[in-house]
């Protein structure tokens, strides 16, 4: 984009458009799931002992979601890779009969590329999940999944994040022999989620526009949404945002919660949401101002509730993140920022 084109756009214009595009993007991925199913069939043909996931930034939160999917739906141990063990310390563990999934929207991060190359040399079955066909990461991995979200102009990842969640779900569901039955109507559900939550998100923007720090929290699958929420609020609104699993929040950090603390709690129908009741009782007793997001938001104590359509628990994060992205957009604009071009950030971050 040229400097004159940048000057002609309104703050947040790209992020708003990309948030709104997600129902179509998600529906399209489900329609094209046959390509993902082919990758899943190859994984099923060579069943791994365990799985590793490599990612950075928003993709790391998508990988966290996939970790829960793999452990719960496939019954396999799964872990998140520390890329520096390969890039800085030259560690070369035995990865025979191991599945390594590298998740990167751009497919161009040098550390993920090196991790994938090293893992393949060490015997792992490597899969790249990215939004860039023909990327170095796709070429390095044995198998590749294209999330197909299209070009994303805003720096903050929105449609690429939800599409990555969708692609990972379709992949893991297909490995277990599923037919994507829980996401067949995901495009319409996403549209409902955006439309039905708009008023509540507007109230949340008004209520929290002057807050300085916020804690985000969730359990189970929704912990990934809490982590992504903290990142979105930090990078677009420059808030001091910190994510905790609900369990970890009770193991010490709750001591820092008081009347000046805003808490964004992700709570959807299912075991993870049910486990959040104890957490929210604890922060409520300390006077925190709670914003609840999810299909079970109406069932918990909160100052503002953003309800969502109910789905199978394992696909709830695909919808949960939508109003969170709108919240980050709205707060950034209300605080005088431009979430399309947050200070000091670039679309592709190259680390090693």
Structure, explained:
With 352 residues, this protein is α/β, with parallel strands linked by helices. It has two domains: 3-183, Glucose-6-phosphate isomerase like protein, domain 1 (Rossmann fold), CATH 3.40.50.10490; 192-334, Rossmann fold (3-Layer(aba) Sandwich), CATH 3.40.50. It contains 14 helices and ten strands. Helix 11 links the parallel strand 6 (213-218) and strand 7 (240-245). Helix 3 runs parallel beside helix 9 (159-175) and helix 5 runs antiparallel to helix 11. The two termini are 27 Å apart. The model has no long low-confidence stretch (mean pLDDT 94). It comes from Amycolatopsis cihanbeyliensis. InterPro entries: GlmS/AgaS_SIS, GlmS/FrlB_SIS, SIS_dom, SIS_dom_sf. This is Glutamine--fructose-6-phosphate transaminase. Keywords: Repeat.
